[in-house]
Amino acid sequence: HHFTYSVLQVSDDESDITDISTEDPDSELNDTGSSDQGWSNSFTPIQINDFCGEAGVLFPRDFDISEATPLDYFSLFLHSNLFSDFVEHTNSYARWKMGHEGAADARWVDVSEVEMRCYIGLNVLMGINQLPNYKLYWSRDNLFGNDGVKSIMTCNRYEKLTEYFHVSDRLYDTSGHDSNFDALYKARPLLDTVRASFKKLYRPSRYLSVDEAMIAMNGKLTFKQHMPPKLNKGGVKVWMLSDAENAYLLDFEVFHGRRGVKTSKNGLRYEAVRKLTKELEGQNHCVFFDSFFTCEKLMMDLLDAGIYSCGMAQPNHKGFPKDLQQLTKMKRGEYRVQQKGHLTAILWQDTKQVAMMSTLSDPMEEMLIQRRQGQEVIEVRQPHSIYVFNKYMNGVDRYGPLRAHYQVGRPGKEHWKNITWFVINCAILNAFILYKETSIRVNKKKNYSHLDFRCELVRQLIGGYSSRKRRSVPMDDNFVLHRNVVMGHESVHMGYKRRCKVHLQKKVRKETVYGCKICNIHLCKDGCHFQYHK
């Protein structure tokens, strides 16, 4: 059957679809599992099964959307336990570094959870009020100096927190003796926790999109990537799965090179999409992606797993029908289709040729769209698969500019810190998306924007804190070098978490991975080890 719908879709002379060529050394995706055989000009109707998933937000029982603030939504992803871990690992790293260098840092005093929240808040603020150099926030020049930042924290304190800031235990560093070490180990605890919370709190709609993002990197890195079409020319590549309806980030995968990764005959991009969509199989989701991912093998395997897909294609790639590759001249609105089982390949002429492969549209289903041509509005035929691609391939495309508009932290040479700021930024964006979709809190502003959300979050993270109210107590060299060794009882990594003996005696629940092997008990590094043995 021939289906025709009339759709008002007025645009300029250019096509909706941006022709993105993302050539990459990992080109095996388009060269394996595909065959030019079996394509036909005879069409068989395609039946698309109904979506059987349950979309929605899964808030904790005590979460009140009538009163929840930006900090409450943000804390769904970065909960207090993570901030406690940041504090423990930062203080631990500071002590280790001073001990390693054999001298105390007179400018350092252990950070508290309240101050850590303030530090994160300042880095969010710096993404809103951006300056080329962080020292300008403390400048005496009225054009640059920020009185609010100055009143919260000194420049020296900010520098020290940045120097020692850690989100993981350095004892897990195996880079020196393990050829298959995890290149992301310094950011791994945060990565895994936040990714899990993204998936746990939200069930996506039917329509999803997969794309790439780039985390800006200034330093040298073995797995640094270059993607000219992206805003950031070089950095760490991230594969992202978003809900195409609202741009909520469901999951992401940070590419960290091929070290320790099992070689796949289908290619890294194939494996990335399959991994991102693994938990969504069997629900009849529809996934959209650009030509970087599109290939017959991936689309048919997704279909077998109960996931429909649609993606832009490169006509000159292996697997796209040769008969369509040879078409060079068509009038605007004309298109050609070939079918292989449930898979269709389409070449459509707009202002330029657009190639598409799809398993989610009938090969003869089309739309009538309206285009502006000079001063006139004309009707143009458009295949249904291209229409739905234009409509839904915007989850990551919308998410990227939102994330890039307000960065968190400042790009540096340490890749794990850049990844950490990226993850925190994603958590803020997801929190804002959930806030806009679910909150019934009464706001003073009628149109509560993304900027309003971030500004309120910053104020709540800082919460009136000021490091200027506290006095730093310098540590002597003897304390730094021997604090964790008391009468032969050394504080060591026990290999697993248990409740701290000192906190247990105080009837306070605090777990730690550190303890004393001689006494066979767990004790926090932050004073408890010394207090127990003194």
Automatic annotation (TrEMBL):
<dbReference type="InterPro" id="IPR029526">
    <property type="entry name" value="PGBD"/>
</dbReference>
<protein>
    <recommendedName>
        <fullName>PiggyBac transposable element-derived protein domain-containing protein</fullName>
    </recommendedName>
</protein>
<feature type="compositionally biased region" description="Acidic residues">
    <location>
        <begin position="14"/>
        <end position="29"/>
    </location>
</feature>
<feature type="region of interest" description="Disordered">
    <location>
        <begin position="14"/>
        <end position="40"/>
    </location>
</feature>
<feature type="domain" description="PiggyBac transposable element-derived protein">
    <location>
        <begin position="69"/>
        <end position="432"/>
    </location>
</feature>
<dbReference type="Pfam" id="PF13843">
    <property type="entry name" value="DDE_Tnp_1_7"/>
</dbReference>
<feature type="compositionally biased region" description="Polar residues">
    <location>
        <begin position="30"/>
        <end position="40"/>
    </location>
</feature>
